[in-house]
Amino acid sequence: MYGKAFAPEYQGALTSLSVNSxxxxxxxxxxxxxxxxxxxxxxxxxxxxxLAVAEAHRRLGxxxxxxxxxxxxxxxxxxxxxxxxxxxxxxxxxxxxRQRGAFPLARRLLGLAADLGERGGDVVVRGYSLxxxxxxxxxxxxxxxxxxxxxxxxxxxxxxxxxxHTVWALEGIAQMHRNTGSYDRAYALFEEAAGIAARAExxxxxxxxxxxxxxxxxxxxxxxxxxxxLLSEAETACRAMNLSSALAYNHKMRGNVxxxxxxxxxxxxxxxxxxxxxxxxxxxxGEALARLGLAKSLARLGRDRxxxxxxxxxxxxxxxxxxxxxxREMVTRAQAEFGVGAEAxx
Length: 346
Prior knowledge:
The chain is an all-alpha fold.
């Protein structure tokens, strides 16, 4: 049995905030409470309020502000001698590093966070940090290395009845099944995640699960109408909470659905929108995926073959250097689809 979802990153004076609070509201209250803590000289409270500020900035796509905030939170936690608060700050920094495509830094910070969390006796930050390491590996396409860790974290979350973490693990495992062609298994996991998230009132987790379901419905069933309806439902939640990254990925997925349906002009518009959104928040993985969708749409709309070849070759190089294996394989398939392999641009 799962209880109502909660946000453990909202700590200290901010524990009353909901997992579904608008990030704009979280940021405003977090800054206010942070200033109060600074004036009173309470470094422990400063660290914990600073964590919420860092996470709000990160999820709003304000990466430079997020970078300053997590580092300030860590310094305050270290001054207070609070290893658990230090771990949470490192978790935030590692999550930001992954969002920015700095995967080696993400692994280092998240590994330190997991160790500090264990030493500080905070099983939640330890679990979140290990989950971050698992997600980093999954995003890079290293499924063999992180699949078992995902399953381990899912079992731990189920045992503790943590709805939000259970939903995260289910969605990660589902995504790996989807990417390896096990659509039925992926659908069942996304469906379970959506149900748990809905009952636990986890709107963020529910929105990501709906996005996953829309993808499967589109690619497996060819049901464009249902896929778009699921994405519209998810977008409502993203906008209510100001989830900039989730909204951009929603728009990118809408482009995918439209592309599969042969609606290339509409797909191009969605990919262009997502590309702009990803660039604003400096999210290179999302930017590369939107570029790929846009390149394919433009090719279908009559773009010069040499331009398509050059764009895909550049994307292949970007993704190879970033270590994004699955996305790199997607580019290889696109090159084959349009008959513009790497040799075409030599």
